[in-house]
C-alpha cells in the first residue's frame, strides 16, 4: 500500500480554525443562521418542530434530488446523489471509478483533498499547471499533452480554489475535448458556482457537455450553509447509482433536518435571496480587501478572483508560506492558508467574505506581521 498522504490543509484547519481569534482560512461566505434561512421562506423556528428524526432516503429524498437536478440543464433526480458535503462526493468518485495504478490528470492548483484521495488510492497523478503569469489561464496544449490513452480521470475546479478564476468557454471546451478523446471521466468540483463576484450570471456547469462528467456541488461555499454538511454529485444515472452503493458503506444518509433545510435553501423562492446575500458580501469584503492591499506598498500581487470568497496572493517577503502561517497563528492569533498547501510557496490564501469588523481585524494583524518581516 502507498504511504498515507494526510490532507494537510484540512488537518491545519481542523486543529486551529476554532482556536484563533480571526479565521481567514475559511473558504466560504460567512455562514447564515437557521433563523435567517427560515425568515427568507417566511417561516419561524417553530416550523421545524414536527420534522421527524428518522432516516431519509439514503441517496437524498426525491424532492431534494429533483430540486438539485433543476440547477443543471438536462438533469433529472436519477442523475443526483446527495452526500455528506462535497468531501464525501469527491471520495466516492475516486474510489468508485479509479483503481490503484490508474492515471489521473489534475489541473493545478486544485482542491487538494482530491489529490490526496487519489494518492492514497495508489493512483499516478500527472499535473497540469494554470499559468500564474497569464491570470491563471489554462494551457490547453499542455493539458492535451498530459492526457494519454492511460488517463482514467481529469480533475478540475471551476471556479478555481484557491485562485477564484472562472474558466472561459474555450478552456472548458478544451477540457472536455481532452477527456472525450481518451474516454476519461471528468471530475468537476463546482462548489463555487453561484459565488460570482462581479457578475450575476452563474458559472456554467460541465454537466451535459460530455457523457462522463461528475459535477460536484455543496451548500458550504456559495450558500453559506456549511453546517448542513450537504453536497452532491450530478452525473450519469448508472455512475451515480454505483457511487450510491459505496455511499451505503460510508455515511448512509443525511440527517432529515439537513435534507429539509437544503430543500428550503435551494427552492426557487429562497435560493435567489441567498445568492444575493452572497454577492453582497463578496463585493463588500473584496472592496475592503482591495483598500487594504493598496496600503501594503506592493508587498502583495495577484489576479482578482472572478468568483469565490477567497483570494490567492503572491507576496514579496523573506519567509516561507508555512512558516508565516505558523507565525501569524501563534503570535497574532489569525489563520491563513499557506501556498505550500497548493504546491506554490510565496503565496497565501485569504478569505474576505466575513463580517467587516472581523475582516479588518484580521488584515490589521497581517499588516503588523508584514512590517516586522520588512524590518
Structural summary, described in words:
The chain is of the alpha/beta class. It is built from twelve helices and 13 strands. The chain has helices at residues 8-16, 34-40, 62-69, 85-97, 112-121, 140-146, 169-182, 237-247, 256-265, 271-294, 321-332, 356-374; strands at 22-23, 80-83, 103-108, 124-129, 151-157, 185-189, 213-218, 231-234, 300-301, 310-315, 334-335, 337-338, 347-351. The mean pLDDT is 97.
Structure described in brief:
By secondary structure, this protein is of the alpha/beta class. The protein is built from twelve helices and 13 strands.
Descriptive key words:
375 residues; 7-stranded mixed beta sheet; alpha/beta; Aspartate Aminotransferase, domain 1; 12 helices; 4-stranded antiparallel beta sheet; single chain; Aspartate Aminotransferase, domain 2
